[in-house]
Amino acid sequence: MLKEKNGDVAPIRAAVANEDGIDFTLIELFFFAYRDFTSDPDQMLADYGFGRAHHRVLHFVNRRPGLTVAELLDVLKITKQSLARVLKQLIDTGHIVQLQGPRDRRQRELYPTARGRELALALSRPQSRRIHGALMEMKGEGRKAIEQFLKAMVNPELRVQIDADPLHRMEEDRE
Amino acid sequence: MLKEKNGDVAPIRAAVANEDGIDFTLIELFFFAYRDFTSDPDQMLADYGFGRAHHRVLHFVNRRPGLTVAELLDVLKITKQSLARVLKQLIDTGHIVQLQGPRDRRQRELYPTARGRELALALSRPQSRRIHGALMEMKGEGRKAIEQFLKAMVNPELRVQIDADPLHRMEEDRE
DNA sequence: CAATTAAGTCAGCACTATTGACGTATTCTG
DNA sequence: CAGAATACGTCAATAGTGCTGACTTAATTG
User: Fold this and answer.
1) Which CATH number fits domain A24-153: 1.20.1630.10, 1.10.10.10, 2.40.160.20, 3.40.50.720?
2) Could you give the C-alpha distances from B117 to A6, A13, B59, B114, in angstroms and in order?
3) In chain B, where the domains are located
4) Does B84 contact chain A (CB < 8 Å)?
């Protein structure tokens, strides 16, 4: 037995093939694609002293104005403390405003201001351009296929959040 | 003029439509898809005290055994210091070994051990299963379209890294 | 031999995220 | 109506990942 106590540290010189039928190619592409997809807004955000978290908050508040804090936490899947700082900064800089909930006054409904709307659009513009360009490089009816694929990548129990068209979403989707 | 010094903080109550032709639907889906795509390995990694960065290093060392540190930095687009901590942990735990470069002895070629190979496979298994499941939900020849799309999402100047099939990549792709 | 390069390391910092605890206002329930 | 539950905000402490800049060692290159 030539094994060390910490296990066999002999180098494996062969690259992973598609062992066990694992699709390393698409896994890797998904990583690269997302890395570059987020790089454009990340650069802009740096000018504001913001990070990626600010973008996400801004995005969903623009997508679903009137969101409550609890709903936002649910969509982002982060904790209250993680959101707190980011949200406070966006409010302090006049990108988002809070209104007391009309039915339940404990709630704070979140709305973008004109400035917040503009920033959200500016951040999304290069991302949309990148997506549009990628679709152009494909043949014909690509967009539908991509939408289907991405939606199918999301955990089934979370697909209610997806809300491809917010205008068609009813209140009952949430609980 | 009713504007405050910090700008107009009037709430915008309308959800963003596809203003300026921005495809918010796909932007949002890409976010959700990637979030869930990384959630499975993230949970496993927690058992080892590792994070997502460890996974990425492990992935590329398994994909291209013999990578040097400099090449790895170039692929990951992070700094030496960011890599240092993560790489050291993977070496200390016997997942990766370093061999002195045969031509240039300053270089350290990185190889997975059996343990490192196993962990890389284990981490990628749920991701590949998710991708495979998503492709199944689409019609017929979806995989090719998805590969095309994801590749097109990557910055053109970085596509040389992509290396869809490492066995076909020649040394000249790097500099 | 001098300059450059590959790698490792140190110190300090920023951002995002975590858990747990606690306070306050409001609403719901028995 | 009193007490429980809820929505939100905040505090303290911690972790993981990333950054910049500076420095050392060893090896290669000119």
Assistant:
1) 1.10.10.10
2) 15, 11, 9, 5
3) 40-162
4) no
∠ CA A49-A113-A95 to the nearest 5 degrees? 15
Number of neighbours of residue A23 by Cβ within 10 angstroms = 20
- Separation between Cα atoms, residue A102 and residue A100, nearest integer Å: 6
Nearest to A131 among B23, B93, B132 (CB): B23
Using CA atoms, how far residue A86 sits from A83, A121, B9, in Å, is 5, 19, 18
Tens of pLDDT, residue by residue over B48-98, are 888 889 999 999 999 999 999 999 999 898 999 999 999 999 999 999 999
Contact A134, B149 (CB under 8 A): yes
CA–C1' nearest nucleotide, residue B89: D16
Q: Does residue B43 reach within 7 angstroms of strand D, measured from its CB?
A: no
Residue of chain B whose alpha carbon sits nearest to that of A123? B22
Instruction: Encode pLDDT of A40-96 as tens digits.
Output: 899 899 888 888 899 999 999 999 999 999 999 999 989 999 999 999 999 999 999
Mean pLDDT of B95-123: 94
Is A142 within 8 Å of B164 when comparing Cβ atoms? no
Q: Determine contact: A166 vs chain B, CB below 8 A.
A: yes
- Angle subtended at Cα B34 by Cα A120 and Cα B147, rounded to the nearest 5 degrees: 110
**CB distance B59 to A29 below 8 Å:** no
Q: Does CATH number 1.10.10.10 belong to domain B40-162? A: yes
